[in-house]
């Protein structure tokens, strides 16, 4: 069975060219870039090249790139740095729809006495900038607002957010979790209000276990990983050289594929969306009226469980994901869909397709063929579904 992989917001295939780029740095060129000898030096050169490649994709300078182990670490490093730099400020602002990498940390900090404001979103997943404007004050240490949502693909107006933070925060830092945005939509730090930005390699065809924190030049930074002098004292620990080199290549390729992502990949997503809405009654798009990433489709089917759809699709080789997380034995709809006020019946029946450049029209046609009968079959098995089908 050939798999159809449409769960790219969870993780992506390592591009073969990326793998080839990193391959020599395991068994042959395994030197430590901090070593004085030529053997370490040649690795250091490749790490420098990777830093340049990441910086190019972001419109940043190489000195602003700090390699970390993952997106989660980058998010933690940014927020922890801000509260260290501003110990007198006790207010943190984020949104209700952030990834747990940000949300869990903020909620933990609220238990340690920080005032945490979680901004609301509307039914389409959009931020209310007036709520932000009212919330930011001179007690705010950091505002952390994601660039694009991993579940719905909804894109936040990051530069407008940044303007408000700068205007009202008087020194408050602005961090964005851009883990889902980088490589999918253009980002230019040279003309941005963002102070710190997180990236994760495995979301853009690099391996797992590598991330970046962009730290704008001049922004004070206190590392929470301390030890050696790596990354100009901003992240201690011997560099994961092969993965850094891989991420550099992945960023170079992401720049080259950006147009494809926003034309061909988007057209595939749009065809899938339009056709499923046509073929499956009582279906709706989560965040459909908002600006979204070109690759993401979160679609809700009433009267069915998303997990049941996923299991049946999985039997046919189709990999997607659901909007629910299984917590303590009960199926809780995702915090993102709940924050959007998506009715329970829809939130439970939501699934997410997230495409990449490796998907094809044939993949889309297969899903269009296989999914409608799956939803119908599940509706026939549920009392509300049967009632709806018989009405
Ligand atoms: N932030 C967002 C928006 C994500 O989607 C993810 C991963 O799903 C992360 C952070 C965490 O990244 P990592 O898996 O590299 O820790």
Reading the helices and strands in chain order gives: EHHHEHEHEHEHEEEHHEEHEEEEHHEHH
Q: Name the overall outline.
A: globular
Mean pLDDT: 96
Based on DSSP secondary structure assignment, what is the total number of beta strands?
15
Spatial strand arrangement across the major sheet: 2-8-7-6-5-3-4
GO molecular function, one term: pyridoxal phosphate binding
EC number: 2.8.1.7
Keywords: Iron, Iron-sulfur, Metal-binding, Pyridoxal phosphate, Transferase
Domain Aminotransferase class V: 4-366
Ordered list of secondary-structure elements with their pairings:
Blueprint: E1 4-5, H1 16-22, H2 24-27, H3 38-58, E2 65-68, H4 71-85, E3 91-95, H5 100-111, E4 115-119, H6 129-135, E5 140-144, H7 158-169, E6 173-177, E7 196-200, E8 211-215, H8 230-233, H9 241-279, E9 283-285, E10 296-301, H10 306-315, E11 318-319, E12 321-322, E13 324-327, E14 330-333, H11 335-339, H12 344-348, E15 350-354, H13 361-381, H14 383-390
Parallel strand pairs: 1-11, 3-4, 3-5, 5-6, 6-7
Antiparallel strand pairs: 2-8, 7-8, 9-10, 10-15, 12-15, 13-14
Bound molecules: pyridoxal-5'-phosphate (PLP).
């Amino acid at each position: 069975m050939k798999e159809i992989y449409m769960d790219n917001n969870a993780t992506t295939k390592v591009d073969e060219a990326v793998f080839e780029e990193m391959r020599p740095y395991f068994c042959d060129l395994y030197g430590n870039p901090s070593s004085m000898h030529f053997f370490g030096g040649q690795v250091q050169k490749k790490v420098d090249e990777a830093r340049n490649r990441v910086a190019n994709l972001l419109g940043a300078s190489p000195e602003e790139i700090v390699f970390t182990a993952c997106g989660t670490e980058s998010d933690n490093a940014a927020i922890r740095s801000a509260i260290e730099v501003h110990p007198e400020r006790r207010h943190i602002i984020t949104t209700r729809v952030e990834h747990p990498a940000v949300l869990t940390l903020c909620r933990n900090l609220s238990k340690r006495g920080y005032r945490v404001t979680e901004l609301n979103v509307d039914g389409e997943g959009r931020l209310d900038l007036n709520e932000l404007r009212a919330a930011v004050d001179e007690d705010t240490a950091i505002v952390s607002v994601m660039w694009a949502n991993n579940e719905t693909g909804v894109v936040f107006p990051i530069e407008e957010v940044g303007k408000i933070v700068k205007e009202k925060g008087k020194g408050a830092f602005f961090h964005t979790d851009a883990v889902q945005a980088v490589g999918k939509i253009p980002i230019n730090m040279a003309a941005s209000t963002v102070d710190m930005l997180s990236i994760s390699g495995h979301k853009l065809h690099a391996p797992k276990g590598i991330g970046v924190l962009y730290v704008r030049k001049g922004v004070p930074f206190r590392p929470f990983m301390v030890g050696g002098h790596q990354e100009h004292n901003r992240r201690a620990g011997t560099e994961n050289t092969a993965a850094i080199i891989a991420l550099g290549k992945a960023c170079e390729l992401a720049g080259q594929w950006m147009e494809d992502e926003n034309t061909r990949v988007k057209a595939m997503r749009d065809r899938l969306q339009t056709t499923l809405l046509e073929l499956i009654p009582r279906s709706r798009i989560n965040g459909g009226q908002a600006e979204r990433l070109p690759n993401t489709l979160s679609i809700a089917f009433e009267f069915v469980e998303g997990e049941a759809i996923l299991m049946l699709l999985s039997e046919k080789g189709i990999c997607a994901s659901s909007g629910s997380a299984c917590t303590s034995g009960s199926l809780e709809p995702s915090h993102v869909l709940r924050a959007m006020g998506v009715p329970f019946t829809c939130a439970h029946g939501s699934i997410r397709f997230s495409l990449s450049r490796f998907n094809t029209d044939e993949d889309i046609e297969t899903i269009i063929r296989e999914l409608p009968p799956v939803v119908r079959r599940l509706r026939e098995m549920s009392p509300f579904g049967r009632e709806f089908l018989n009405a």
